[in-house]
Write a structure and sequence with these properties.
The chain is of the alpha/beta class and 263 residues long. It has a domain at 36-173: 3-Layer(aba) Sandwich (Rossmann fold). The protein is 42% helix and 19% strand. Strand 5, helix 4 and strand 6 (105-106) form a beta-alpha-beta unit.
Length: 263
């Protein structure tokens, strides 16, 4: 049975692991990153208390949504549009009662005749194409994000004379694998299994490589780099290729597409 190593943060890995098992594959949860609330929520709380300042709020990920909305007092304002990158964020918003048509949502997601999201890029570039820049020019866009991250969208908006405020709702840090997780990876390598790795975040790639280097040195890293990777976004594939990974399958966003690519 093929082993599928799921590198999402632990709290987000369980649902995908269930889908993988249902497809007849063996899931192994090995988080590359840990997600935690922002260490200092002062700026986030201030922004959420004064949402009338903003013409648009952009959440960069489902984690940004989850860790921000837990601090929101009352419902999201009906007249305040939201921008997100992909279907996972739309699903997270819907779980909090925020969905079209009651709310105006900007996203690269497009529906097809089958009702599935089209396999295009779900990133800052695609989201920017959906925005009404003329309506935003001179107004403030709030970007809710994690620590670090890619500044591209904020920089492009400011170049277009849109004011940008940014606050953090969560923080990413490298997950330190426990002894059981370390041994599970070493056992895979000892059996010379070329496991399939599911990597759903560009930021996780360096953390994953560092963890395997600490567990088993360069031979384990080389094994990782020659394994099959399944990734949902073009940018992840590009970043993985830059780090020496060559066997990459780009599947598109969403757990259903990931599982289909694994079969």
């Amino acid at each position: 049975m093929t082993t599928v190593v799921i590198t999402r943060p632990a709290a987000q890995a369980a649902a995908l692991a269930q889908h993988v098992a249902a497809a007849g594959l063996e899931p192994l949860i090995f988080p590359a990153m840990a997600i935690a609330p922002t260490a200092d929520p002062t700026a986030l709380l201030d922004a959420l208390s004064h949402l009338d300042r903003y013409r648009l709020v952009i959440f960069v990920s489902p984690n940004a949504i989850t860790h921000a909305l837990e601090h929101l007092q009352g419902p999201w304002p009906l007249n305040l549009p939201i921008g997100v990158m992909g279907p996972g964020s739309l699903e997270t918003l819907a779980a909090h009662g925020i969905a079209a048509p009651a709310y105006r949502l900007y996203s690269p997601v497009q529906s097809t005749a089958t009702g599935q999201a089209s396999p295009q890029r779900f990133d800052s570039e695609s989201l920017l194409q959906q925005l009404d820049i003329d309506a935003l020019r001179g107004n403030i866009v709030l970007i809710i994000k994690g620590n670090g991250g890619r500044p591209w969208l904020a920089e492009r908006l400011m170049e277009m004379e849109v004011k940008v405020a940014q606050v953090e709702s969560y923080q990413r840090k490298r997950h330190l694998p426990d002894e059981q997780q370390k041994q599970a990876i070493l056992n895979l390598r000892a059996r010379n299994e070329r496991a399939t790795w599911v990597v759903t975040s560009s930021e996780a790639i360096d953390d994953l490589i560092q963890s395997l280097e600490e567990i088993g040195g360069q031979p384990l890293v080389d094994w990782l780099k020659t394994s099959r990777w399944v990734v949902p976004h073009q940018r992840i594939a590009e970043n993985a290729t830059a780090r020496g990974i060559r066997n990459i399958d780009l599947c598109g966003a969403g757990d259903a597409r990931i599982v289909e690519a694994l079969k």
